[in-house]
């Protein structure tokens, strides 16, 4: 490989790793947001250990990506073969892990759906109407997705507050505001004048599935883009590593 090609490869790899570092920061920030935000769907599922583990995995992957980006930048600029080899190996392992995770999610989607249904059913049954963080998140979902319950409005029939009340109660966030009249709260329970009081009939599972189907192109595009970027990084790193002369290794390490 000529000197000009070596220089171009080196700086392309540096730019790639800078982008990789920033992507790692975004992933870590996304994991922290899911873990700490009190208006996201994750709050409803915060009693699930697997969901919390998923958030911590996102944070760990983001931090690891930032570290890999830093090492890749260092190896590219100073042409350190051991760092470039380590970088290539880690990228390969990450790519294999992503493929395995995608296959696992695809083949275990029914199990994941059942687990999600159990978690949400538990949330609905134990919903006391005292405006806690979990309840605010679920009210936000029902109000903005215009849905009620997980599979439908009847999911609320197991709620102990509704079961033990002598009044005809329904979650205020289930109210179909396009058909109802009067002022009602956005959270907690509201008293219905009649059993025919308008609430949303569709369950939130259908709304979530519809949202995923609508945005599946964006999700697949992001996944494909990440995989291509990783492949590009692997190609650049191995090309640069193969063309660095062994005797020059120690002269590339910065002196202090």
Automatic annotation (TrEMBL):
<keyword id="KW-0472">Membrane</keyword>
<dbReference type="GO" id="GO:0005886">
    <property type="term" value="C:plasma membrane"/>
</dbReference>
<keyword id="KW-1133">Transmembrane helix</keyword>
<keyword id="KW-0812">Transmembrane</keyword>
<dbReference type="InterPro" id="IPR018503">
    <property type="entry name" value="Tetraspanin_CS"/>
</dbReference>
<feature type="transmembrane region" description="Helical">
    <location>
        <begin position="84"/>
        <end position="107"/>
    </location>
</feature>
<dbReference type="InterPro" id="IPR018499">
    <property type="entry name" value="Tetraspanin/Peripherin"/>
</dbReference>
<feature type="transmembrane region" description="Helical">
    <location>
        <begin position="12"/>
        <end position="36"/>
    </location>
</feature>
<dbReference type="Pfam" id="PF00335">
    <property type="entry name" value="Tetraspanin"/>
</dbReference>
<dbReference type="InterPro" id="IPR000301">
    <property type="entry name" value="Tetraspanin_animals"/>
</dbReference>
<protein>
    <recommendedName>
        <fullName>Tetraspanin</fullName>
    </recommendedName>
</protein>
<feature type="transmembrane region" description="Helical">
    <location>
        <begin position="216"/>
        <end position="240"/>
    </location>
</feature>
<comment type="similarity">
    <text>Belongs to the tetraspanin (TM4SF) family.</text>
</comment>
<dbReference type="InterPro" id="IPR008952">
    <property type="entry name" value="Tetraspanin_EC2_sf"/>
</dbReference>
<feature type="transmembrane region" description="Helical">
    <location>
        <begin position="56"/>
        <end position="77"/>
    </location>
</feature>
């Amino acid at each position: 490989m000529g000197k000009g090609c070596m220089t171009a490869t080196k700086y392309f790899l540096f730019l790639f790793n800078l982008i990789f570092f920033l992507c790692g920061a975004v992933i870590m920030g996304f994991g922290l947001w899911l873990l700490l935000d009190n208006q996201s769907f994750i709050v409803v599922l915060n009693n699930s250990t697997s969901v919390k583990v998923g958030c911590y995995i996102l944070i760990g992957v983001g931090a690891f990506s930032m570290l890999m980006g830093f090492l890749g930048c260092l190896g590219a600029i100073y042409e350190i073969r051991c760092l470039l080899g380590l970088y290539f190996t880690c990228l390969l392992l990450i790519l294999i892990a992503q493929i395995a995770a995608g296959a696992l999610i695809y083949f275990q989607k029914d199990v994941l759906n059942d687990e999600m249904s159990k978690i949400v059913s538990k949330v609905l049954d134990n919903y006391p109407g005292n405006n806690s963080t979990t309840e605010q998140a679920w009210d936000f979902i029902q109000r903005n997705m215009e849905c009620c319950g997980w599979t439908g409005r009847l999911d609320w029939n197991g709620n102990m507050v509704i079961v033990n009340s002598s009044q005809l109660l329904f979650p205020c966030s289930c109210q179909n505001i396009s058909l109802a009249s009067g002022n009602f709260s956005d959270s907690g329970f509201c008293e219905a004048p009649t059993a025919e009081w308008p609430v949303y009939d569709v369950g939130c599972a259908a709304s979530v599935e519809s949202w995923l189907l609508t945005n599946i192109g964006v999700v697949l595009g992001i996944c494909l883009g990440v995989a291509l970027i990783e492949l590009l990084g692997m190609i650049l790193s191995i090309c640069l590593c193969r063309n660095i002369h062994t005797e020059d290794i120690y002269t590339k390490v910065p002196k202090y």
